[in-house]
TrEMBL record, chain A:
UniProt xrefs under InterPro entries: ApbE, ApbE-like_sf
Catalytic reaction annotation: L-threonyl-[protein] + FAD = FMN-L-threonyl-[protein] + AMP + H(+)
Pfam families: ApbE
EC number(s) per entry: 2.7.1.180
Alphabetical UniProt keywords: FAD, Flavoprotein, Lipoprotein, Magnesium, Metal-binding, Transferase
PANTHER family with a match to the protein in the record: FAD:PROTEIN FMN TRANSFERASE, THIAMINE BIOSYNTHESIS LIPOPROTEIN APBE
Keyword Lipoprotein appears in the UniProt entry: yes
Gene3D superfamilies assigned to the protein according to its UniProt record, in alphabetical order: ApbE-like domains
Source taxon at top rank: Bacteria
Cofactor(s) this protein requires: Mg(2+)
Protein name in the entry: FAD:protein FMN transferase
GO molecular function, one term: transferase activity
From TrEMBL, chain B:
Protein name: Uncharacterized protein DUF2271
Chain positions covered by the region annotation Disordered: 40-61, 133-156
Protein origin, superkingdom: Bacteria
Signal peptide extent: 1-21
Compositionally biased spans, kind Low complexity: 40-53
Gene3D superfamilies, per the entry: 2.60.40.4070
Keyword ATP-binding: no
Length: 319, 238
């Protein structure tokens, strides 16, 4: 079976190890997810919910499902992963699709202003309330709150597709959406080999021969970078404690686990917290997840449990 | 734990009900087609599994590649409109498979509105279409914007088609019996191909109606061979 490439959700998608019918189903689903979750189309569920000013908004079943899961991660991470940073993204200049920013020479059209810390309905003393009604397909957010499920929803969507294919009996497959990957195979098959890009060097940080099932997500401040209208550099991973682009010593974090949405959340937390605090938090949240980080000096570090998800590991880790 | 983290505000989240399977509309029909194929008598007369016995997963059909049909849809603010169907025919005009049909018509709305997508219904003999095909093709009306549907190179029974030229058609009801029909040809085989469909208005006076569908194009990609011994892809920030 041949591999197929396309561009969906603002990123390059690779589908391998599956038939064309399965590829068509995955692409159809990812395109629907793109329409539902994009911040850059006025008719998307994400935009309509953000514009509702506190009123209940009718949304798709996929929106309530993904938002509920994102909110659970928000709580588990104590707010470090924040699905309500839509307004902060706009303020730091990520107000149009990244393809458009690239076409503008890497300069955002958006204004940039000092950003206060933000969470839903940041009124002093009041605990804001988010309502998600799966049965009636309704979401209600505090006024002034904007959702941005960003990289999480990319991972969540790929995970949904992989789960559906595996339930239908697909014995082998790899879905890669911009470097966020779910790969599975029969234990007797040759392993999928996945490289880990180095954010600061042309050579990869290493290669992983994956176990029969693995989800791999990477977050990096070296990607989706731009200059704002004042010429200052910015990137898309926002530290919810400051509302500004994350500024830890971790330039890139890769997390391996069973669920790609969760791996995406953990990778984001590692980049926000850095190479010391990040792995400590991950050990608290999910001790079964494995990680690889690259710091500002280009040093590669990894968790001791990578072998849970890899048949072979070859990393450029300093002795 | 960072002191800064403690100041983060996490909202009270009130969840009602249970999340439904989000991907059903896309992967349900895949399962339905596989079931219809695996339920058919196997070559050599092998028996289907006994009731209660789990059928082995059907292997994915090895086809020639993927055809992507892209179009722009402009929903029209009027009744008796916004119905579209997209289907494939072979070079002889023989029906192959429906890829998309607006659910109102696909599920019998034509009994109340007979002028709804008549060419597609006649070509596909839709009134007697297999259940799996109805399930796979029937979708809610789409929002305005660019859309893509994919043909995996199989016919309505899930069998791989041979290499060759195929016709793709998009029929749309503009208002009552006024329709637009886009027709294009795409070759599936060992090489990539692409084409743009031409519009025909039925009747010709329908050209005065607003555009429902525009810019219909198709791309065939045979895919890339991949050696499992090589690095398939790279994980990276995106």
């Amino acid at each position: 079976m041949r591999a197929f490439r396309d561009r969906v959700m603002g990123t390059d998608v690779l589908l391998a190890g599956m038939g064309a019918g399965e590829q068509a189903a995955v692409l159809g689903w990812l395109r629907e997810a793109e329409r539902v979750f994009t911040r850059f189309s006025p008719g998307s569920d994400t935009r309509r919910v953000g514009a509702a000013d506190g009123r209940a908004t009718e949304v798709s079943a996929s929106f309530t499902a993904a938002l509920a899961e994102a909110c659970a991660h928000h709580e588990r991470t104590g707010g470090l992963f924040d699905p309500f940073l839509g307004a902060a993204m706009e303020r730091i200049g990520y107000s149009v699709g990244f393809d458009e920013i690239t076409a503008r020479g890497g300069v955002s059209p958006g204004p940039v202003a000092p950003v206060p810390p933000e969470s839903p309905g940041d009124d002093a003393g009041a605990v804001p309330r988010v309502e998600i009604d799966h049965e009636r397909g309704l979401v209600t957010l505090p006024p002034g709150t904007a959702v941005d499920l960003g990289g999480f929803v990319k991972g969540w969507s790929v995970q949904q597709a992989a789960d559906a294919l595996r339930r239908a009996g697909a014995r082998r497959g790899l879905i890669d959406a911009g470097g966020d990957i779910v790969a599975w195979r029969d234990p007797a098959d040759a392993p999928w080999r996945v490289g880990v890009e180095h954010p600061l060097r042309p050579e990869p940080a290493g290669t992983l021969a994956l176990a029969p099932y693995a989800a791999v997500a990477t977050s990096s401040t070296a990607r989706r970078r731009w200059r704002d209208a004042s010429g200052a550099p910015a990137h898309h991973i926002v530290d919810p404690r400051t509302g500004r682009p994350a500024d830890s010593d971790c330039v890139q974090a890769t997390v391996l686990g069973r669920d790609l949405g969760a791996a995406e959340v953990y990778a984001t937390c590692l980049v926000v917290l850095g190479t010391v605090e990040g792995p400590a938090l991950l050990a608290d949240l999910d001790g079964s997840a494995a990680w690889i980080t690259v710091d500002r000096e280009g040093r590669v570090r990894s968790a001791a449990n990578l072998d849970h998800y890899c048949a072979e590991v070859a990393l450029d880790v300093p002795p | 734990m960072s002191d800064r983290r403690v100041r983060l505000v996490v909202p009270l989240v009130v969840v009602t009900g249970v999340a439904a399977a989000a991907t059903g509309a896309h992967f349900g029909h895949q399962a339905a087609l596989e079931t219809s194929v695996s339920a058919a008598p196997a070559p050599g007369g092998a028996l289907a599994p006994a009731p209660g016995e789990e059928a082995p997963p059907a292997p994915a059909t090895d086809t020639l590649g993927l055809v992507s049909i892209e179009y722009r849809l402009n929903r029209l603010p009027q009744s008796a409109s916004n119905q579209i169907a997209i289907w494939i025919e072979d070079a002889d005009g023989g029906y192959v498979r429906t890829l998309f049909a607006t659910s109102f018509t696909a599920n019998g709305g034509y009994t109340r509105r007979p002028m709804s997508l008549p060419l597609w219904r006649e070509t596909a003999r839709w009134e007697s279409a297999p259940e799996a095909e109805v399930e796979s093709a029937s979708r809610p009306a789409q929002d305005s914007g660019r859309h893509t549907v994919h043909w995996d190179g199989t016919d309505r029974e899930g069998r791989a088609v041979p290499a060759g030229a195929y016709t793709y058609r998009v029929e749309g009801n503009l208002r009552w019996e006024n329709r637009v029909l886009f027709t294009g040809s795409i070759t599936v085989g060992g090489e990539p191909d692409s084409s743009r469909a031409e519009a025909e208005y039925l009747p010709a006076s329908a050209a005065a109606e607003s555009d429902l569908v525009e810019e219909v194009t198709a791309v065939f990609a045979p895919g890339e061979p991949m050696d499992p011994a090589d690095v398939t892809t790279y994980t990276r920030g995106s």
